[in-house]
TrEMBL record:
GO terms for molecular function: hydrolase activity. It comes from the Bacteria. This is Carboxymethylenebutenolidase. SUPFAM superfamilies: alpha/beta-Hydrolases (SSF53474). Residues 21-200 form the Dienelactone hydrolase domain. It holds the Pfam family DLH. InterPro entries: AB_hydrolase_fold, Dienelactn_hydro, Dienelactone_hydrolase-like. It comes from Actinokineospora fastidiosa.
Length: 221
């Protein structure tokens, strides 16, 4: 399994952010920005980063919270999520893109993937930035935004600029089947390839992983 590292990264214009990253052992297939869940850089996020790097991707996680902290408690996470805005998450993701660009990864070979909070942010990024592809895993905020500063996903899904895949469990109450179907309809009006898949818990983790990898293989060339 690839090793992960954390460091501060500063752009020439003075913008700076803490990043967690992992590098593949062999040839770099492309770059992936991983957007973390509401509790920050958890063991689940670290496992995803290491796993993606082991598949040949150069992977970076922008720390979306200003403190740059790793995992935070559930109560603190709610406060941090409520402080996020569309501008703040795009600014953080842009620094992740810049980190990959500094390592000679072209934009059309860069993808973004997020889980839970990060899944919602991944769709927002995919509607505002020209990269290669995006994947949302279990992202909330479909009909009601996760914070006052973030849009509801159905409001921006029709504006998707890059191929987007949404992966959702079918055995949970939130987001509901109705919400996911409304998101599917909204995304279907975009001028790019989109897909939404719902699956049961029993096959969920493995299926989501393989579908995400296949999506990036198909669109990051």
């Amino acid at each position: 399994m690839a090793q992960t590292h954390t460091a501060d990264f500063r752009l020439d214009d003075g913008r700076a952010l803490r990043l967690t990253y992992a590098e593949p052992d062999g040839v770099v297939r492309g770059g992936l920005v991983v957007l973390h869940e509401s509790r920050g850089i958890t063991d689940t996020v670290i496992g995803m980063v290491a796993g993606l790097a082991s598949e040949g991707w150069l992977v970076v996680v922008p720390h979306l919270y200003p403190s740059g902290s790793h995992e935070v408690a559930e109560e603190e996470a709610r406060d941090k999520v409520s402080a996020l805005s569309g501008d703040s998450v795009l600014a953080a993701t842009d620094i992740g893109f810049a980190w990959l660009a500094a390592r000679e990864v072209a934009l059309d070979r860069i993808g973004v993937i997020g889980f839970e909070l990060g899944g919602a942010v991944a769709l927002v990024v995919a509607a505002r930035r020209d990269i290669g592809a995006a994947v949302t895993v279990a992202g909330g905020g479909i009909l009601e935004p996760l914070s006052n500063g973030l849009p509801a996903l159905v409001e921006v899904a029709g504006e998707l600029r890059v191929p987007w895949l949404g992966l959702y469990r079918s055995d949970v109450e939130s987001p509901s089947a109705e919400e996911v179907e409304k998101l599917r309809d909204a995304a279907g009006s975009a001028q790019v390839a989109t897909d939404v898949v719902r699956f049961p818990f029993e096959t969920g983790a493995a299926e989501a992983w393989h579908r995400a990898l296949n999506w990036f293989d198909a669109h990051l060339r």
